[in-house]
Amino acid sequence: MPLAGKYRKDQDQTSLEKKDRIDLFGASTLVAFSILLGLNQVMIKLVNGGLQPVFSAGLRSAVALVLVLSYALWRRKRLSIRDGSLKAGLFSGALFAIEFVFLFMALDFTTVTRVSIFFTPCRSGG
After folding, report:
1. Quick count: other Cβ atoms within 10 Å of Cβ 119?
2. Which residues of 69-104 are buried (b: 16+ CB within 10 A; e: fewer)?
3. Going by C-beta distance under 8 Å and a sequence separation of 6 or more, which residues neighbour residue 111?
4. Would you say 48 and 107 are in contact if contact means Cβ atoms under 8 Å apart?
5. What confidence tier does 8 reach under pLDDT thresholds 50, 70, 90?
6. Cα 124 from chain centroid?
7. pLDDT at 66 over 60
8. C-alpha dist (Å) from residue 112 to 18, 42, 44, 104
9. How many Å apart are CA 116 and CA 118, to the nearest integer?
């Protein structure tokens, strides 16, 4: 049985509010996030006009790595690969990289609309 609308035993019942409809904040957040994802793919399509898709995906990942490491250093977070998560992290990172390579290459061959329709069910697991 899913936990949607149910209370966990270890959680204070007053901290969760059961809702049968989405509120304005939730709806506007979903719309804003959808717009952000759509603009992301449009920007990828524009960049693919000047750079090779795999190069731009790698460049984007390198910039993200610098930003994440900078944030971790700023927050003084200890980064370690000795906690046993290296293999799982490399595996999930490789799958994520393959997905982005396919996404960038697909946007090089077709429209953003077609790619959005194809990749959305893949990301949602359905």
Report:
1. 17
2. eeeeeeeeeeeeeeeeeeeeeeeeeeeeeeebebbb
3. none
4. yes
5. low
6. 11
7. yes
8. 37, 6, 9, 10
9. 5
Terminal alpha carbon distance of the chain: 19
- The pTM assigned to this predicted structure is 0.58
10 Å CB burial of residue 43 (0-12, 13-18, 19+) is: middle
Does the pLDDT of residue 13 top 60, yes or no?
no
Q: Which residue has the tokens 């959808």?
A: 34
Separation CA 9–CA 70 (nearest Å): 39
Nearest of 125, 126, 118 to residue 41 by alpha carbon:
118
How much is the pLDDT for 9? Answer: 55
- What value does the mean pLDDT of the chain take? 79
d(CA 36, CA 82): 36
* Domain edges within the chain: 22-124
Contact 49, 109 (CB under 8 A): no
